[in-house]
Amino acid sequence: MTAVHQVVASFAPRDATGNHTLQVQSVLHELGYESEIFVAVARPEVRRLTRAFQDHPGGGWLLYQLSTGSSVADWLSARPEPKIVNYHNITPASFFAPWEPHVGVELDAGRRQLRELAPLSSLAIADSGYNQEELTEVGYDPTTVVPILLDTATFEHGVDEAHLERLRAQSAGGAAWLFVGRLAPNKCQHDLMKAFAVYRQVFDPDARLRLVGGSSSGAYHDALLELASAIGIERSVDFVGDVPDAVHGAHFRAADVYVSLSEHEGFGVPLLEAMHHRLPIVAYGAAAVPETIGAGGLCLEAKDPATVATAVHRVLVDHALRDGLVAAGTARLGDFDLATSRRRFADAVRSVVG
Amino acid sequence: MSEVSTSLDLDLVRREIDEEVRARRASGDFPPGMERELDLAFARVSPVATTGDDLEGLIQAADRSAFIEGRPPVASRTAVLGLVKKGELKLLGWYFNHLAQQMTSFAGATVRTLTVVADRLEKVERLLPQVDRALLDHEAIPGLDADLTERVAARLAGVPGRVLVVGDGGGLLSALVAAGIDAYAVTPGAAPRVGPAIEQREGDPFEHLADLAPGSLGGTIVLGLDASATGVKIAHVQAAASAIDEGGSLVVVAGRPEHWGRDNPVEADLAPGRPFRPETWFVVLEAHGFALAEVDDTGQSLLVSALRRR
Question: A interface mutation test: which of B16, B46, B60, B64 has the most A CBs within 10 A?
Answer without folding.
Answer: B46
